[in-house]
């Protein structure tokens, strides 16, 4: 799993400052414009976004902008005209992938009555889409709970607030800080939390499995391999193994 989050926290400030300094009518720095793009400019933007998903998915968010430009077959200046820093581009890609995963989780909730089928459907769909490799770094950051540290509430909705010793859990950058006000991430965690709670209540999910575990499965079971057929086969096999590990066992 190649998730890197250097300078991530500065993305909002960069995006805000760039948007305020952009010339009138030139559009916003985060890729959304107030006026329509020319056909060629729109095409370049789509190429850059597609290339960014591929490059960050393969190499992690630490990959340089030059790699994105090379994959998009445009000059690096073209990339920077649309996204004044890598942080802005990273945030754009991560937000889109978070939204896609949230939609997939909602679809699983709405279309599968059986709790385990809903959870496994979400995992299979999300792994197949490759979105797990592009989740925001703060969603995937985990810590190990110590026996003497059981008062720190995990920020994931619907997950136990007092994890057992040694259990992986999501933790904020600053353990004393409040949960981040990221509505997209919050929605994802909430919907996945519902899938987890339903499967746990039905006795089909191990009681110690948390939302963070499910997200780690999504990220881990989507390896990046040069051959698409091998990648699909490896993902399917790994996910089968991980799903088996998530299921509860008769006492």
Automatic annotation (TrEMBL):
Keywords, ordered alphabetically: DNA-binding, Transcription, Transcription regulation
Region Disordered, annotated ranges: 1-37
UniProt cross-references to Pfam families, sorted A to Z: TetR_C_43, TetR_N
Domain HTH tetR-type: 42-101
DNA-binding region: 64-83
Coiled-coil segments: none
Bias (Low complexity): 9-22
Name of the molecule in the record: TetR/AcrR family transcriptional regulator
């Amino acid at each position: 799993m190649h998730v890197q989050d250097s300078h991530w926290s500065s993305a909002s400030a960069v995006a805000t400052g760039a948007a305020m300094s952009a010339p009138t009518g030139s559009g916003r720095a985060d890729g959304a414009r107030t006026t329509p793009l020319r056909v060629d400019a729109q095409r370049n933007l789509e190429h850059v976004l597609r290339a960014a998903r591929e490059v960050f998915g393969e190499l992690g968010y630490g990959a340089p902008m030059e790699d994105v430009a090379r994959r998009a077959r445009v000059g690096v200046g073209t990339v920077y005209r649309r996204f004044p820093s890598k942080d802005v581009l990273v945030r754009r890609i991560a937000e889109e992938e978070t939204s896609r995963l949230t939609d997939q989780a909602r679809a699983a909730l709405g279309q599968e009555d059986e709790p385990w089928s809903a959870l496994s459907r979400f995992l299979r769909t999300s792994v197949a889409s490759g979105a797990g490799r592009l989740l925001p770094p703060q969603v995937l950051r985990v810590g190990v709970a110590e026996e003497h540290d059981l008062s720190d509430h995990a920020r994931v909705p619907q997950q136990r607030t007092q994890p057992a010793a040694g259990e992986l859990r999501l933790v904020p950058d600053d353990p004393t800080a409040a949960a981040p006000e990221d509505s997209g991430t919050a929605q994802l965690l909430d919907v996945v939390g519902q899938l987890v709670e339903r499967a746990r209540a039905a006795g089909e999910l191990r009681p110690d499995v948390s939302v963070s575990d499910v997200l780690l499965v999504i990220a881990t079971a989507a390896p990046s391999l040069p051959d698409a057929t091998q990648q699909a086969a490896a993902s399917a096999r790994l996910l089968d193994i991980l799903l088996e590990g998530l299921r509860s066992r008769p006492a």
